[in-house]
Amino acid sequence: MTTSQTITNAEQKMQKSVEVLHKELATIRTGHASPALIEHLKVDYMGTILPLNQLATISAPGASMLLVQPWDKTSIPIIDKAILKSELGLTPVTDGRGIRINIPPLSEERRQELLKVVHHRIEEGKIAIRNVRRDALEELKTQEKDKEISQDDLKHLQNQLQKQTDAYILRIDQVGKDKEKEIMEV
Predict the structure, then answer these.
(1) pLDDT digits (tens, 9 = 90+) for 18-40
(2) Of the candidates 114, 135, 111, 115, which has an alpha carbon nearest to the alpha carbon of residue 17?
(3) I want to staple 66 with a disulfide (CB 3.0 to 4.6 A). Which of 16, 20, 38, 101 is the partner?
(4) Do residues 134 and 73 both lie within one domain?
């Protein structure tokens, strides 16, 4: 693998880490209704475990309500059960055609718990970025040892990789700050 491929691969993996963090944080409940909150809930449908978004249309008709409209109306009870079993603390209301979920406002205590979860996920994202950097550095050092690149090139590439890492860590921090702000909104 060439040095430019090593740096490019590292950047792609870092970008992927930021995207994964974004998706994970979208599932953390705030005071606003968001389909991302429940779309990945696992539902046992006819012996197959499927994410909810493969069984139904999920929409947010209001700021504090989600509407789940299953394509197969016979799946309403199992979807209802999956939502109740989830750790989201939501209570679904079925009406025969679909499921309505009112999103209650968050208490201050619950907001603090969610902030801890957000901080934990942010730290995991930073660790993932640092692991990508470590792997890329090892690859570059191997290339230098095999005389594919010079020591000067290695130093230059290490600096380039560090700048890239710092930029992605800043992105992760910004994603975290945005989510914290969203959680603390009343």
Answers:
(1) 999 988 887 776 667 778 878 88
(2) 135
(3) 101
(4) no
